[in-house]
Fold:
Amino acid sequence: MNDILLVARREIGVRARTKGFLISLAVSAVLVAALAMLPKLFAGNDSYDVGLVGSDSLRTAATTAATAQKVDLSFTPLPDEAAARTALLAGDIDAAVLDGRALLADGAVDRRLGVILQAGHTSVKTQEQLRAAGLDPAKVTEAMRVAPLTEQSVSPLRGDSSVRSGFAMLIVFVLFFLLMSSVTAVAMGVVEEKGSRIVELILTSIRPWQLLAGKILGLGVLGLVNLGVIIVAGLSAGVATGLTADLPDGVAGIVAGAVVWFLLGYAFFAVLAAGFGSLVSRQEEVGGVLTPLTTLLMAVYLVAFYAVAEPTGPLARVLSLVPPFSSMVMPVRMAATEVQLWELAVAAVAMLAAVAAVLAAGARIYRRAVLRTGARIRLTEVLR
Amino acid sequence: METRALHKRYGDKEALRGVGLAVRPGEMFGFVGANGAGKTTTMRIVMGVLEADSGEVLWQGRPMTFEDRRGFGYMPEERGLYQKMRVAEQIEYFGRLHGMSPAAARTATHDLLERLGLSERAGDPIEALSLGNQQRVQLAVALVHDPTLLILDEPFSGLDPIAVDTLAGVLAERRAAGVPVIFSSHQLDLVEQMCDSVGIISAGRMVAAGPVDEVRAREGRRQLKVVVRGAGPGWADDLPAEITHQNGVHVLRAAEADDQAILRAAMSAGTVEHFGWEQPTLTEIFREAVA
Structure:
């Protein structure tokens, strides 16, 4: 065990120092934070400044409408139209209302603000016209007050479904990125040791499986660190933009689930990558020998991507139980919809079994191939 | 350390055909042979990096185990170091892999770097070092854990004369400490100077082995050499010897012969400038053995 930790520590120590790792850490954190902010960026402002020329009868009604939309309005009284135009062009205000007659803006009026101001305007004018028609506005309002339809979800799901699927999409993206980069790192590391013959030296003091386990453990820890940084960056961005308020219930559970599924997926793909990697002796050959594996990972990614759109469809439901697809499809379903406990149990047991099987095969390939330098070794030669 | 009847076959090629050699504590064993004769294969089998088809490797009289090998120091034919790792860090790492405590590994690394003249480079990554210095680091990696046996494949190749002296000095220290040392080399003069015993391998078989003096003095290999000036032609026609003639000097060479009879004949024929038995150099033995 000590030897495994020794190897793992070296992997972490050396790789954590490389520019490549630090850059990918920073890029992934920034990217995820940006993605987490995206909905709010597209949603536009949630506070507006409105200039009022002449009558300010609009103020109360518009504020009521704005409050319903969770938007802050502030009003700036302006002397005349010329002042309003100047303030608009200078960007001091978002829109100006001229005495209940016209709505001015620099270009088109912001859609949300337009709706709010028009609603306020309608409300003010309706009352005036009702009074002019000799009707009591209070009574009319009373008569028109209708309790809205109550909304109910037939599943225990709550929260905005678009936020849920956005969240699931983010999980797919992050898991794919991390699996791909850590798995490649494992294969590159194996070939580095094999190609430079360091492995010959190391294997006189520790067993092949110890070296393999240490390498996978070390790079796994780095992957986990990267995942942690991404989670912190994503959630901080979410808090900063107020997005977390819209997140579905049990975010902590979903994130924890994603971490566990990352580890299972990593174990599966990393052991295979080490096995495949040990077949070649040169770094240039890594890409070629890993092709079957990256193709599989890509397929898993595409299915998971599809599952984001249809988390309750049969494809997503079935493949969320089948390893290695479960490693990405299951966390997507957990984020996007409700997953039965038995499904989770089946998926986890199947994935663990797959990891164990792959561990046996991958370690066998590695042990037999890693000391045979030279031309690429065929898989059938080492599996016999 | 002893190997018995090692056989190894790569496809159709028989690399080893019953290699047996033995090295005792405090003995330095030079392993020589042409390229592809089986030196590296033998060493890799001893280190457990390669498996023999048949035959056995013994340590202290019993089959060698993985734990035994953990105590050995090894320098493979193709040098391998982590290019991006720092010098001291790397030597320490290998010390730890051999089971040393962190403190012991650090101390041993520090001492070795000093001994090998690399102290100033301790913090540099391997890739920044010249090939000769990388080789010193490779040696340090083999020595850091105070090995119980040293196996070095071509440790002198690519070293400048100063580095050769340093390495020879370091190996002599280990031998003096009672460690068996095996190294392969093409520099036979070096082997002759440094080694207690030598093994010559050719096409997968040991063709000569034993203490260097014994191998050189072995029956039938020494030669009598006589140099005579001013002798007339045909003086040695009856002698069992080869004669070469140049500038009035006759050089006579003979294998086993009555040296006194030859000396008398030479003295009566001319002025004897040189007379003596010569042992063949390792190079000559090697040529003869490999031919």
